[in-house]
Amino acid sequence: MNEYDLLVVGSGIAGLTAALCAAQRGLKVCVLTKDPQIHHTNTFYAQGGIVATGIEDSPELLTRDILLAGSEMNYEPAVQLLATEAPSLAIEYLSKKIGIPFVRNADGDFDRTKEAAHSTRRILHVTDHTGRAIQEGLSAYVQKMEGVTILPDMTTIDIITSSHNSVSFQDRYRKNRALGVYVLNNVTGNVEPIFAATTILATGGVGNLYLHTSNPPSATGDGIAMAYRVGVEILNAEFVQFHPTVLFHRDIGRFLITEAMRGEGARLINRDGEYFMDRYAPGLKELAPRDEVARAIYSEIESDNSAFVLLDATQIKGINLEERFPDIFSTCMKAGIDIRKDPVPVVPAAHYFCGGIKVDINGATSLDGLYAVGETACTGVHGANRLASVSLLEGFYFAVRAVAKIAEDSYGLDQDRISNIPEWVSPEKAFEFDPVLIHSDLLSIRHTMWNYAGIIRTKSRLERAIADLGYMQHRVDKFYREARVTREIIELRNATVASFLIARAAYANGTSIGCHYLRS
Known about the structure:
The protein is an alpha/beta fold. It is 37% helix and 16% strand. It folds into three domains: 3-238 and 354-418, FAD/NAD(P)-binding domain (3-Layer(bba) Sandwich), CATH 3.50.50.60; 243-349, Flavocytochrome C3, Chain A, domain 1, CATH 3.90.700; 435-508, Methane Monooxygenase Hydroxylase, Chain G, domain 1. The chain has helices at residues 13-24, 59-69, 76-98, 130-143, 222-229, 259-263, 277-280, 290-304, 321-324, 326-334, 391-409, 415-418, 435-452, 459-482, 487-508, and strands spanning 3-9, 29-32, 50-51, 123-124, 148-151, 154-161, 178-185, 191-201, 234-235, 240-247, 267-269, 309-312, 344-353, 356-358, 370-372, 377-378. Strands 1, 2, 5, 6, 7, 8 and 15 form a seven-stranded mixed β-sheet that branches. Strands 10-13-12-11 form a four-stranded antiparallel β-sheet, with helices on one face. It has a three-stranded mixed β-sheet with strand order 9-14-16, covered by helices on one side. Helix 2 (59-69) packs across helix 3 (76-98), helix 3 (76-98) packs across helix 11 (391-409) and helix 14 packs antiparallel against helix 15 (487-508).
């Protein structure tokens, strides 16, 4: 029987940090990831950097910047904790312990960069592939640790709880607790329970619910849906952040053009050659908060019926673009674009989920034994809009806090309750779900979310989204219960739930604020 002290679902910065910290405390840990490769996460694709202590910086200044970006809808105790403790802790773990090669200047100090809405240069980076460096460094470190089992190609289906899944009626009358998960082996097709004293969801975001996204295809809101199905509250679901600049090219999808490029001086132009951010944000211009820049681009695209705008990096002075942005440089060159001479076609895309599973400052949910960290969680740090490069720091920091709390509580496996959990039961006459239908349904969700619950929303569009997604959720769930379970049907089922929750939350919030913008 698969039994662990801690089960972590997800292998990005939050999940691997949790595994690392738990193993250091002597816990027996299992990490599940639904992709064949452990590194295929949102973390891997984060280009810009991670917030640390900046030049002439302070916790108070970082707190102020986070609150301003989040429209002051942030949970202030969580923001203050992060601003005070997380930057130095990140350097201690990631730079000194793991050895992430953050770029340094000639004096040997960190080469800090600046992004939109930051008051100072405080972002550590590894040129333009910071996320990849962190992901690869953490992956290599954790895989060598004793006490950690990593299981790739395993799709988590649902959270096992003592009340919902037990065959004993007595368990219905006791306080509910998470006992682990049912998981599908993508290779063999077998489903089995994995039990744990504590389970942490670190499943990433929701970007693949939208037509345009910077996220990998695996970002289908899995943790959100699983937590919701066991009665855990989902908070701030209307706040989906769109990154203003993702490469628009028919042969190269999901490629982010980091905000750091605008931080170094790149400017946005429309097809008439106008630097249009002067009209939308005359003060901050290209360095306005992401929601403002994304809406400006979207409006320009709408007004002249074009598919994209252009990002002009040719004006950046004093920087070797090939050295500072090597991934962007090489990828654009493959597309026939020389960023030293040519503007880059870009489009806004779903990038980061500011809402998520409601947790406390230690990552604990309302369900005993269940924690959530990283993008799938809502600590309240981001409020209505995330400040650039805070996400990696938040995922890292609250994973550290979560494991510290779990170790302090030292709750062991409840063998009596586990003995009452049955094996997975498949339908007697399970049919093969047509992959064309799955693809078509997911594409329908992505179009619905992009058009009706995207960058600019209206009440009528959201009403249509709720109606369409509610019907699809019911239909897909029915098919799921009759079909042979696969990763694709699990993701589709989760996508219908997560997208419906986003649309419903957006409709319920009648005030435009942060990432949530309503046009009358």
